[in-house]
TrEMBL record:
Originating species: Pedobacter paludis
Lineage, uppermost ranks: Bacteria, Pseudomonadati, Bacteroidota, Sphingobacteriia, Sphingobacteriales
Pfam families: CBM_35_2, Cellulase
Keywords: Carbohydrate metabolism, Cellulose degradation, Glycosidase, Hydrolase, Polysaccharide degradation, Signal
Protein name as it appears in the record: Glycosyl hydrolase family 5
UniProt cross-references to CDD domains, sorted A to Z: CBM6_cellulase-like
GO terms for MF: beta-glucosidase activity; carbohydrate binding
GO biological process, one term: cellulose catabolic process
CC per GO annotation: cell surface; extracellular region
Family: Belongs to the glycosyl hydrolase 5 (cellulase A) family.
C-alpha cells in the first residue's frame, strides 16, 4: 500500500509538472522578460521543441552522403545522373512529404510544444548572382507557402513555430554543409549584397508574420562559424575575440525587423557554432534571447556554466536552440539538466536516415546503390534505378512510413521527470511465450538496464563513445545487431561483465515455468544470473561455447516460479562475451 501511495504521488507530481509547463504556452505572443521567456499572461514558458532539419535543407549526413555533402552539390550530382526534370520531381516530392500536419499532430501528442524551422534562403529568394537586376530581390512563393502551411499546422496544435535562418545568402560559416555554402563564391561576410539580401529576407518574413502569435521567435542566423580576425588558424571562429562583423549584421537585422515588427522575440547565436559571444554584449534590444548549441559534452552544471553566467549578467533568457545526435542516456540527462535550470530546448533533428531521432526515414536498395556510388564511385547506377530509389525515399519520408522510435521519445519526454520504468512491449506470458532480448524495458540506465558505454562525450573527453555500437533498433547504451538470417529480427551483442537487462511481464497464470535462453558464444567464459522481482532464481548459469557469436543455441533452466500479474525478470551478466537473442517461458503442465 505504501508503495502504491508513493507511485501515485510520483505520477501526480509528473502530471502537475506537465500542467504547469504546458498549460501556459500558446497564450499570445512570447516575449523576453528578465531571465524568462513568458507569454502575454506573464507565465513562464519552457519550450520543448524539435528542429525540422533535412526538410528545407538537406545536410549530407542525414542522407548518408559523406562526400561533397552540401545540398547544392548533392543536387548537381543527382542531376548529372537523371536530368533536371526528374531531379526537380524528387525535391518537390521531398518537400511535400517530409513534414506534414501528421508530423505536427504526432509531436503534440508526444509532448512537444514547439518546432524550429531551419530555412534555406533559396526557397524564398534568388541568390545574388541569379538576380535579373543587381541589387533587387526576387521573391519565391515556395518557401513562404511551406512556412504558411507549417504555421497553420502549429496553430492547429497550439504549438510555437520558431523561424531559423539556417542557410543565409552566401553562407555564414566554414562548416559548409550546415548552410549549403558554395565556398567558390563570396560568403555572407564577403559580400554586401548577401548581407543586404539577408536583411531584406528577414524584413519580408517579419512583414508577413508580425501579427502571428504562434510564431514564437525569429532565430536570425544559425550557427555562424567564421574566423574574422585569424581565418587561417581559427576558421570556425571559436577563438574570435571581437566578432565585429557578426554583431554588426545582427544589429542591422534587428533594426530592420523592428521597423515592421515590435512584438516577436529575436534570437541571436554566437560565433563558433552558436557559443562564442565575445564582443557581442551588451545587447541592443529589449525582447531578445540568447541561443546556445550543445553537443557531445557532459551534462553537468559546469557544461552550462557559461550560459548561466551570460543569462545572469545580461538579464536575458537562454534557449538551447540545437542539440541531439547522441544516445537516450545523453538526451535524458541533458533535458533534466536544462529544465532544472529553466532552459528551453530544441532537439536536432526530427527525422533522418538513422536511428537516434524520434522518426527514422527508411532507406531502400536502389537508393543505397546511389549513396555508395556518390560516396565511393564504382559501378554507376542506371537512370531508372536512381530515380526510383529517390522517389521511394521521398515516399518513405512521410511520417506514416517512418520508423517511430518510441524509446527516443520516452527518453526525451518522460524519463527526465521520473526514474520509473515501463514495458517496451506488452509481454503477456501464457503457456509458451517468446520475448526478444532487444525489447527490454523503457527507462534510464541503471533502472531498466545497465550498460557500461552509454553515450558520446568526445568534446569533453577527446574520445568517442558510441552507446549502441550497432546503431540500430534502439538508442540506449545496449549494443544491438541485426540478425542476418531473419528479417526484422535483432539481438543484443557485445555483452560485458556487470551489464544487465530487465523485462516487465504480465503473467496470465501462476505456475512453474521452464526458462529457455537463446544465446551465442565463441568461448566458455560467459555466465548469467536470473532474477525475478529482485530475487535470484538462477545463479551464474554458464553460457556454453556455441562455436560462434552468430550461432545461437537454447539453454534450458527448469522450475522458475512465476505468480500471476506483473513480474519483473532480469538477466545479469556475471561474465560477458556472449550474445542474447530471446528468452522463452514455457508453462509446465
Amino acid at each position: 500500500m505504501i508503495t502504491e501511495q508513493i507511485k501515485f504521488k510520483s505520477i501526480l507530481w509528473i502530471f502537475l509538472f506537465s500542467i504547469i509547463s504546458f498549460s501556459s504556452f500558446s497564450q499570445g505572443f512570447l516575449k523576453a522578460e528578465g531571465k524568462q521567456i513568458v507569454n502575454e499572461k506573464g507565465e513562464n514558458v519552457l519550450l520543448r521543441g524539435i528542429g525540422l532539419g533535412g526538410w528545407m535543407l538537406q545536410e549530407g549526413y542525414m542522407l548518408k552522403i559523406n562526400k561533397d555533402g552540401q545540398q547544392y552539390k548533392i543536387r548537381e550530382r543527382i542531376e548529372q545522373l537523371i536530368g533536371a526534370e526528374k531531379t526537380s520531381a524528387f525535391y518537390n516530392a521531398w518537400l511535400t512529404n517530409h513534414t506534414t500536419k501528421k508530423d505536427l499532430d504526432s509531436l503534440k501528442r508526444w509532448g512537444f510544444n514547439s518546432v524550429r524551422l531551419p530555412m534555406h534562403y533559396n526557397l524564398y529568394t534568388l541568390s545574388v548572382d541569379q538576380e535579373p537586376v543587381a541589387g533587387k530581390n526576387t521573391w519565391l512563393e515556395k518557401g513562404f507557402a511551406l512556412t504558411d502551411s507549417l504555421l497553420a499546422w502549429c496553430k492547429a496544435n497550439k504549438m510555437y513555430l520558431i523561424l531559423d535562418l539556417h542557410a543565409a545568402p552566401g553562407g555564414q560559416g566554414n562548416d559548409t554543409n550546415i548552410a549549403d555554402r558554395d565556398a567558390s563564391k563570396p560568403s555572407l561576410w564577403d559580400s554586401e549584397a548577401n548581407k543586404e539580401k539577408t536583411i531584406a529576407l528577414w524584413v519580408k518574413l517579419a512583414e508577413r508574420y508580425k501579427n502571428e502569435p504562434y510564431i514564437g521567435a525569429y532565430d536570425i542566423l544559425n550557427e555562424p562559424n567564421y574566423g574574422f580576425q585569424n581565418p587561417e588558424a581559427d576558421k570556425n571562429g571559436t577563438k574570435e575575440k571581437l566578432n565585429e562583423p557578426l554583431k554588426k549584421l545582427m544589429v542591422d537585422i534587428t533594426k530592420a525587423i523592428r521597423r515592421v515588427d515590435q512584438k516577436h522575440i529575436i534570437i541571436i547565436e554566437g560565433n563558433g557554432w552558436g557559443n562564442n559571444y565575445n564582443g557581442i554584449f551588451p545587447l541592443w534590444d529589449k525582447n531578445m534571447t540568447l541561443s546556445y548549441h550543445k553537443y557531445w559534452n557532459y551534462n553537468d552544471q559546469a557544461s552550462i556554466a557559461g550560459m548561466l553566467k551570460a543569462r545572469a549578467e545580461q538579464n536575458v533568457p537562454i534557449w538551447l536552440g540545437e542539440t541531439g545526435e547522441n544516445s537516450n542516456v545523453w538526451f535524458t540527462d541533458a533535458i533534466a539538466l536544462l529544465e532544472k535550470n529553466n532552459i528551453g530546448w530544441s532537439w536536432w533533428p526530427l527525422k533522418k536516415i538513422g536511428f537516434n531521432n524520434p522518426m527514422e526515414i527508411k532507406s531502400n536498395p536502389k537508393y543505397n546503390h546511389l549513396v555508395n556510388y556518390l560516396n565511393n564511385g564504382g559501378e554507376k547506377p542506371s537512370t531508372n534505378d536512381v530515380y526510383e530509389g529517390l522517389m521511394e525515399l521521398a515516399k518513405d519520408a512521410k511520417v506514416e512510413n517512418n520508423i517511430i522510435h518510441k524509446d527516443v521519445i520516452d527518453a526525451m519526454i518522460r524519463q527526465p521527470l521520473t526514474k520509473e520504468t515501463k514495458p517496451f512491449k506488452e509481454n503477456p506470458i501464457q503457456n509458451n511465450t517468446t520475448v526478444y532480448a532487444v525489447d527490454y524495458d523503457l527507462g534510464r540506465n541503471g533502472k531498466a538496464y545497465f550498460d557500461l558505454d552509454t553515450a558520446d562525450y568526445h568534446v569533453a573527453t577527446n574520445k568517442r563513445g558510441v552507446g549502441n555500437k550497432g546503431r540500430i533498433y534502439r538508442n540506449d547504451g545496449v549494443d544491438i545487431a541485426k540478425d542476418s538470417l531473419q528479417e526484422d529480427r535483432f539481438y543484443v551483442n557485445s555483452i560485458e561483465k556487470g551489464e544487465w537487462l530487465q523485462y516487465s511481464l504480465r503473467v496470465v497464470k501462476s505456475g512453474i515455468y521452464t526458462l529457455k535462453l537463446n544465446v551465442a558464444s565463441d568461448t566458455n567464459d560467459g555466465s548469467v544470473s536470473v532474477f525475478v522481482n529482485d530475487a535470484e532464481v538462477e545463479k551464474s548459469v554458464a553460457i556454453p561455447n556455441t562455436e560462434g557469436l552468430k550461432k545461437f543455441k537454447v539453454i534450458t533452466l527448469q522450475n522458475v516460479s512465476l505468480k500471476a500479474g506483473k513480474q519483473v525478470i532480469r538477466f545479469n551478466a556475471i561474465d560477458g562475451g556472449y550474445n542474447f537473442s530471446y528468452f522463452q517461458l514455457v508453462k509446465a503442465k
